[in-house]
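[User]
If only I could read backbone structure tokens as easily as an amino acid sequence. I have put the entry right below:
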Amino acid sequence: MRKWEKGKMIDFYSIRTFDEITEFHCIMPMSNIPSILTHGILSFDQVSSMEHDSIALNVVQSRREKSVPGGLRLHQYANLFFHARNPMMYLIRENRICILRIDKIICRIEGVVFTDRNAASKYVRYLSVDEVQSLDYQAIYAQDWTDVNEYAYFEKKSTKNAELLIPRRIPENFIIGAYVKNEEGKNTLQELGFDRQIEVYAEMFFR
């Protein structure tokens, strides 16, 4: 079992509903991999002072300029998705990205916050680890978010972007592997020093 070097741990194994979760995902430009293997996955605020490539959309980041009730500012969290085949990935669809796979044991870090949809949404609910059973896993892990009903469509679309927020940084030892869209991406990650399992999984990238 991995240990987290800072902060307390919560009783992860007492929460049965975590059986619904296999891992968490981080959509990341491959060029950032060397830095991530050294520093971990950093929050928006922490990484802003470092040289890095970003896929963040300015219009979305402006909506994330808010605080989590009883917690930190949203930009002080490193954020993960439950499932990277989501609306953000659909917008990006670039060759220079990979999906980092994060061990679900990350949930044990003190201060993590779950969101039932995109954290930038004004309708988002922030949930504690004890409330995770209320998430709509069927919508989160659905292959798409299409619907003939416009309201249902936007609801599904937002829910697909449900997040896990981790205070300040995700230590690199929680990264268990990566998905790439093709063999070229796999070769690139290996050349950048990524030393964990790499799987070609084109469907995650809408290919």
In short: The longest strand covers residues 23-29. The chain has one domain: 12-205. DSSP finds seven helices and ten strands in the chain.
